[in-house]
Amino acid sequence: MRILSYIQLYFRLVSAGIRAQMQYRFAFIMRIVGMLTAYAGTATTMWVVLYRFDALGQWNYYEMLFLFALAIVSWGFCIILFFHYISLDTYIVNGTFDRFLVRPINPFFHFMSMRFDVASFGQFIFSIVVFLWVSVALSIDWRLSKLLFLLASIVGGVLIQGGMLVMISALAFWTTKSNWFYWVVMFPARNLNNYPLSIYPKVVQWIAAFVVPFGFVNYFPATVILDKTPVGFPAYIGYFSPLVGLIFFTIAYAIWMLGLRRYKSAGS
Amino acid sequence: MAIIEVEHIRKEFKIAKRETGIAGALKSIFNRKFTIKEAVQDISFTIEKGEMVGYIGPNGAGKSTTIKILTGILVPTSGKVLVNGIVPYENRQQNAKNIGVVFGQRTQLWWDLPTIESFELLKEIYQVSDKRYKENMDTFTEILGLDEFINTPVRQLSLGQRMRADIAASLLHDPEILYLDEPTIGLDVVAKEKMRQFIQEINRIRQVTVILTTHDMEDIEKLCKRMILIDHGQKVYDGAIDTVKNRFGKMRTLVVDVEENGKDLVLSGGELIRVEGNRKWIRFNRDEISASQLIAQITSTHNITDLTVEEPTIESIISRIYQEGLSEEAPVSVH
Amino acid sequence: MSRWRIYYTFAKKSFLRSAAYRFDVWSRIFSNLIFLLTWSSIWIALYGGKEEANGISFTSMLTYVAVSQFLSAVNSAGTPLWEIQEKVRTGDIALELMRPFDVPLRYLFADFGSVAFYIITAVLPVYILLFLIFDFSLPDSWSTWVLFIFSALLGFLIRYAIELTFGLFAFWLVETGGVVDLFYFAMSLLSGSVIPLWFFPDWLQSLAFYLPFQGIYFIPNAIFIGEISGAELLVSIAIQCFWVIASFLLLRIVWHRAANKVIVQGG
Predict the structure, then answer these.
(1) So where are chain B's domains?
(2) What is the ipTM of this complex?
(3) Of A45, A55, B32, B39, which residue is most buried, by most CB within 10 angstroms?
(4) Coil/strand/helix, residue B254
């Protein structure tokens, strides 16, 4: 199938999913409220942390909020598109994965369209509110170029975090531990990434830049937008966020397809 | 040309040996030991277009492995497979366009969406024309009564409804081959009958080749003319079901309840295979001796209070074949 | 008293079960350490080289973080709340209600078992190592150690009772919305798990003093680093005891309601 048909099909699948979820309006709204509450909680904790101190490693409260919101906005898209990937182990164990291989379309794409968690859109409310608030408080000059860069780095963030979810998912083809891996490794790591990278030991910073590129999700792009210097890294490093995302996601996709090939020859 | 050709396929699985204890866990990181399990040792068969074949065997025999290879999900370790002229695991998408699959217990439909949405999505995925889509949907709705639940989300459907939807979905794109895995499992008697009728019609009218794997021997008996029996990864029997019944279905079991009088039962031509209190099971070959002759032998020494004659079901015939293997009289492949 | 025999058996069973699933159990220490890394880095950056802030020395603050994460590991080793909620929801809990023991106590003792395994085989070794490598301040008298352990145990009990109470209560709400998140956030912040109460704004500090959460992390942490001593220490322990009793009473009431609902309506 050609790319255009895939996109068409994806939209169809997604709209069907949205329509299905919209039937449960109350639950839908409650889930959004839940997410907003959780994020508000983190933002409050950050405020309390900084109450008696002025800054965390030269990041003041508003700058930290921005950093946090930037991570959330791309994570929001990630949840919608890729979160069910970490449950691939369940699909395989239950035998419900095989049906994706019996249809004449690319299995990665088919699996991706299986769930479209619409309620996660609620996260954007938080991020948008924070972006607006912080922009005023810090008097950010939103030139068109800066706005475009923000969008590009959000795309980068989606690709990087999505790529991580895909890689974790691929684990299911070799072991049955994909879900576990997310909660034990990625979840704490995401929490770590809510704070400026500069406060962590050099090893961690290096890993977050060159191995598992968390830094490019929010920290490096934020340094560009907020005109801060990323300690120990060149000032322009944030610009690479979309490119890093693209490369990382491509690698993740390749690993997933490799796992699929192994699954087809090794069974389960 | 046969629509499915399977030649000497073999499938090995490497199963990692699990070591216990901490030392074992550490060891296994550096040096994994494997045992090799042969799920399919050597299987060959051909299936012509329009056939309805029962593909049966005990659990672990290699049935689902074979089906996975045929549908392109699994790659065989060696051997050749051609489905409609193409190699399924090499041209997975091409092959997929031409097959329909129903996995008994697990639905192929979108769980949270109304049933009709699944059909519309499949229409897109398989690129079914508007005209053909309407025709098929009309047919299925009429025969399977889909309109009763077409707008209900799949997860709210009863098992019978879901299976009707599943089988309709598998045929929406007019595949030439249909793989059915336990299509009547969990259904009540009436629903089972309806499902079987539908499968028969599909096979008859549309000339769809059907491969049926099931543990329900009634399905096999009612639907298939031919059966392929596999065990331990090898083909044990491949031929007409009637032949199996004739060749192996000659044995009968006479079950009698007798009044005990201390005398031994004297039989010629029949074999006492089981005794429980007053009840005795006697096996005999109906070609060699008749039930009434045996009964006459028994009444000469005992009073019979109750009796039945049991005919073997396909199930018992097959379980005998599993347990005892085939006798020399029976050739493996009979067409 | 044979009753206690039963509870002890649950603890033992739970301990052995943890041993069987030790891979899953030990992997938890990994995420615990990432959180430890996160928060110690935050506090190091906050202090920014200063020797003390708000009356708390730098070493004491880092010790606070480490002890808090230690207790956090201990507190996370019990039966996941959703398991119990699921049993109540499906009515399976009825099976346990028919037995001759108190169900919340039974789960508490089961937690003792799994926590014991986790502490002995994973948490203690790792944290002893950390304390040897890094320059943390240790209590200088035996009595402080004893009081710390006692206080930590009280904190565990408070957390157990409150969390289970809330879990049961929350499951009655059709869609909890933000309530669950609000609860866990409040517990996380107001317990002083990552920020000691001394660094709170005054009004928040007062609020926290009236809530049971401070008994879970703040009080034992503060005892360990010696910031609470003498009369104040005894008062704090008394406060904890009060909250243990209060929270278990509340648990009893809510549990009774839930059990009745299950028995009468079948879940």
Answers:
(1) 4-245, 250-311
(2) 0.90
(3) B39
(4) strand
